[in-house]
Each structure stands twice: as C-alpha cells, then as structure tokens.
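Morning run. Coffee first, then this:
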Amino acid sequence: IPARITGLLIVLAAWMLRFDCIGAAKYIWRDAQKHPSPNSGITLCAGTMATAGEDIPDMIRHFTGNRKLFFAHFRDVVGTPEKFVETFHECGQNDQPAIIRAYRSCGYEGPIRSDHVPTMEGEGNENPGYEVLGRLYGIGYLKGLMHAAGFDLND
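And here it is:
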C-alpha cells in the first residue's frame, strides 16, 4: 500500500544505508520522481552529513524547499564516515548557529532532536550517547541557539 494512501510517513535516514549519505539522497530523489508522495522524506542528521563534507545549511534549504525534510537530528562529530568521534554540539566540525538559522529562515516546523552526546564525568555508559547530563547539556545548547535564531519556544 503506497504511503500516500495510508498516511504513513516514510523517513529515510543515512544510517539505514550504513552511513551512505550520497546513497540516501539518491534514494529519496528516485522515490520522489517515480512515486511522488507528500509522505516520503528524510531525517537530516547534521553529524552524519558533516562527515561526508556536505553543506548542512544548503541541504536544509534544499530539502525544506521541497517539503522533504521531516525530522532533524542535531548533533556534531569530527571525522569521516569511516572514522568519526561524537562531540558536544559546539565542538565538532559544523557551524551549529548557521544550521539553526537555516532551519528558521526556511520555515522548518518539524521536530529537532538533540542527539548523540558524549558521556559526562560521573555517569555510567550504559546508553552511550544518551546519558542524562550530556543530553541536558545538548538540549540547553539547542534551545539557546533556537531562541537566538528567533524560534518561538513556547509554541
């Protein structure tokens, strides 16, 4: 049953394709051309795309303009797709304020999730990338950037 009939949102993320960022973009565009559907889109992971050398604000403008950006992962890394290290949001290779400004200027209204943060001193590492203190730090940083960019955080 096609997604456009069921109302199911189909979201393609690069991690589903073993971090094949270029492949993920090709699949979504192939699908959009063969079977146009408002229900087919992407999860844009800034960290994953940064390892591929992509211009994240440009990707945001492109996919938001085509109404194909459904979900945003806000994270940062240093490295390549084959070898990378998760960093705190302001310590990686992305210009995070520019990314948030791009979401705002494009009118993006979907969810933005703080994702994958380093484990903080004193925490266990039972859930790598998702421990409480690092997550709180990431959410606070994200909210600060969103406030500075003019997002209405009370909406």
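The mean pLDDT is 82. Good start to the day.
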